[in-house]
Amino acid sequence: MFTERSGIIVWVSDLKAAGKHLEKYGNVHFISKRLHYAAMYVYSSRLDETMKQLQKLPFVKKVERSYRNEIKTEYNSNVPDKTRFYSI
CB pairs under 8 A, 24+ apart, for 79-85? Predict the structure, then answer.
């Protein structure tokens, strides 16, 4: 039902150009005016070619891949619960 997407961070020098041109490469999630970057989502199947195309744009400084999908989000606690030792 849902297509697999990957996040990328695009460091830009011109925010106005970024706002106009990045939409055709993927879904722009956020543009930081202070730090001059754009966070966007693209299809995972076309991630490498999209990153190469973005790097060729004149206002793009650097393109970084987000590794958020690969981080383990299920945690287990091997430490025993200490609340039972502190009784009132």
Answer: none
59/10 Cα distance (integer angstroms):
10
| φ, ψ for residue 76, nearest 5 deg | -125, 150
DSSP code of residue 72: -
- State how far Cα 77 lies from the chain centre: 28
3-class SS string, 6-24:
EEEEEEECCHHHHHHHHHH
- Name the token pair of 74: 């299920």
> For the segment 13-70, what is each residue's pLDDT rounded down to a tens digit?
999 999 899 999 999 999 999 999 999 999 999 999 999 999 999 999 999 998 887 7
Whole-prediction pTM: 0.76
